[in-house]
Structure formats: C-alpha cells, structure tokens
Amino acid sequence: MSLSALDEISFPLAQPLPIYLINIERASDRLVEIQRQGNEFGLRFERVDGVDGALISRDEWTDVDHARFQRRHGRTILPGEYGCYRSHLMALRQFLSSDDEMAVIIEDDVALDGNFLVRAMAAKDAAPTADLIKLVNHRWGGFRASATSEEGDVVGRCLFGPQGSTACYLVTRRGAEKIVKSLAVMSLPWDVAVERGWDMQTSIFTTRSNIVGFSRLQRSTMIGWRRDYRAAKSAPWRRVPAHLFRTLDFFRRIAYVLTAR
To answer: Does domain 3-258 have CATH number 3.20.20?
Structure first.
C-alpha cells in the first residue's frame, strides 16, 4: 500500500476528534502497523508527511538557532531531533489549517486502543483551561494532581522534568497557535520545548499514567541511539551554560506547577 493510501481510507464509525499521524516515508512498517490499529478500532488518521532529518544536510536546516541550542542543551542537534521538531510543527500547522477546535497528534510508534479518544476528551473536560495535555510520558517526578476525569485519569503537572516523549497529546486551536508562534525557531528538542508552558504563556497539563502505549516498533528508534547522544555532547566546560539554564528552568517549573489553573 502506498504512503498516501492511508488518507483515502474511510472508517464506518464517527470520530469525535481528528488524529494527526506523524510518519516519515522510510517508516513504512510503522505506517502498516498504525493502519492495522486504525482498522481494528475504527479510527481515521490524517497523515503528516514528516521531515526525515537523516536525509537533509545540516547546512539546509531551516529555523534553527544552533548556538542557543548548544547553550541551553549542552550538545549539538541530532538529525533525528531536527526532523522530529519540524514534523510536529507541520502537524500543528496542518491542524490549524482545518476548522477543528481540538485535535490529537500521535507519532507512528504508539499502540492505541478503542477507548483512548474517550479518555483524552475526558481529560480535557477535567482540565478545561488546558491548551495541551500530554497523554504519554516517560517520567512523572513530583506529580501534583489537579483533577480526575470521568474515565478515572488523573490530570496535573510535574515538579520535575523534562518528562520525555511527545508521542501522543491533545491540543486546542489556541494552544497550537501559541506553540507554533513561540517555537518557530528550534533551540531545544521538541519534547523539552513543548513542556515549557511558563515560557510560552501556555497551559500544559499531563495525565498521571499513559493513555496509550508503544508498539514493538518503538525500539527501531528514529531519533538516535545512546552513542549518538554521547557523541553530540560538548566538553564539560562548554556545558556550564546548559546547567545554569536547567537550574533556572527548574525553579520556573516549580512556580508554574504551584500556580496551576
């Protein structure tokens, strides 16, 4: 099946929210798997033809502040990080070109079920001021609950971060507009940048547990392996500004969490 064929599939069941699926051309196995899940659970996806950073020369990258990334994060940008960042911005802009007020954005390595949209919408009802709710994370350090949804999912914010992963999140039109404007130029990895609601004047919440899982294909990482991250690190003395940035962000995050509304 061609990569564009997913856009032509119609599903028999009404879908309460659009789902934007980020997928790059060489990840055809992931597309097949997510299509299988869609068929099983009656879900329709709008595919976002993601940016494959591995295929673009660093000299051709656009809207990237390399020096600021170095100061803030203590290393250089991995090609996969660049592709991930640009792909999520594309997904948000694709959503903003529609008439919808809310959407869910997913990456192609998630494992869905038939109830995840219901849980996502219930989480939004429990946190009505949220501009974005992260539905998947790797860490929940210092989680502080704000509300519990009708589906039993606890919604809140974490005192410690970053939490990792932007594989699945619900976003409102207002939130997408703010994020696209604030994060137009890359100076942090996407998953780090999108959590910084205090910097974007955006209301970011998270569920206490993951609403979706990960498929077996998650292990075939598209970002980079541990050795890649090690190789990209700067010398210790050059990482001092990054440590200072993270320390300041730690206190800003605490203030953001304690004043959650």
So the answer is: no
